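Dear Dr. H.,

I hope your travels went smoothly. While you were away I took the liberty of generating a structure for the chain from your last submission, since the lab meeting agenda had it listed for discussion. I wanted you to have the full record in hand beforehand rather than looking at slides cold. The sequence, exactly as received, is reproduced here:
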Amino acid sequence: MKSIVYSIDLRATIKENFLAKLGRLIQTAGLSETVKKRDLVAVKLHFGELGNTAFIRPVYLRKIVEDIKAAGAVPFITDANTLYAGTRSNAPSHLNTAIQNGFAYPVVGAPLIIADGLRGKSETSITINQKRFKRVYIGTEIVQADSLISVAHFKGHELSGFGGTIKNVGMGCASRKGKMAQHSSVSPKVSAKKCIGCGECVGHCSQKAISLIDGKADINPEKCIGCGECILICPNAAIQIQWNQSIPVFLENMVEYMFGVLKTKKNKALFINFITDISPACDCMPVNDAPIVRDIGVVASRDPIAIDQASVDLVNQEQALPGSCLTRNTAPGEDKFGGLYPKVDWAIQLDYAEKLGIGSRTYDLVKL
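The corresponding predicted structure, in token form, is as follows:
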């Protein structure tokens, strides 16, 4: 059965500016069916790493927040901490980054809440019993919210080919332990060259999996639970993720995490993709390269798979912009994300999500 994906372009008139058009899109796509009075609504967003400027404009979030409030619900804007040690790896740094990138309360009109707490350990285990995971670990504040509105910036991604709704929900809602499980099946590794034997990681390890041997940190893989806190704690960046998952396994892992998130939000989720500033890499990078195609618009749907499929198709229909890093598959109809990352079969995530019954790759695109 075909799903419906609604779309708007970036055209505007005196009678209807773009913000009003955005409001019409999300109402038509099903905001009133998703959000009820007094619902606590998690608006899941990527705030962007410091130095990146391709993320969604805060003023657009304000419009979404206003419409949620008009429905009688209580929105909060949220994301979970990162696995790597960047500017969003703990809640204070994450909030500072969000505010510096423009997502302060006076701008967006809603509080910012980091979904997995101070150091990424506030998590809820959700049983899913799927091929890759029996249970997944999701940021508690997202699990406890009544409704979920995913607002994703659609762009290229070095591991998944593209980053849209699936990544925003599956990876973005996971706690640090959940992110580690998706990326790696083994414990973090210690760089003996960087480790100075300070013992900070030893004191912070809840499982007593780390000890000092000959003045260097050593991780016992039998005790390690993969929470990733040691990566964040180390003042010398001596503890690193072992990125050992193959691309197909990683993509299926991410989809199963999305399955876990949406298990708690049956008929209570809406998905929005901004297909603008379509950068070649993730907003987690502290820089963004030039867009690979022109700004296309915004799409919204109740189906998280159909919306990503439609977004891919819309990008691939375009002619690549001159001067971008995209040098292959540049013509209309050619696979732009395959051109960026030829070793990534991005369709795996869509196929697997459809197999799990999360949504459909078949859709009707309705332009408003």
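Two observations you may find useful: The radius of gyration is 20 Å. DSSP finds 14 helices and 16 strands in the chain.

With kind regards,
E. W.
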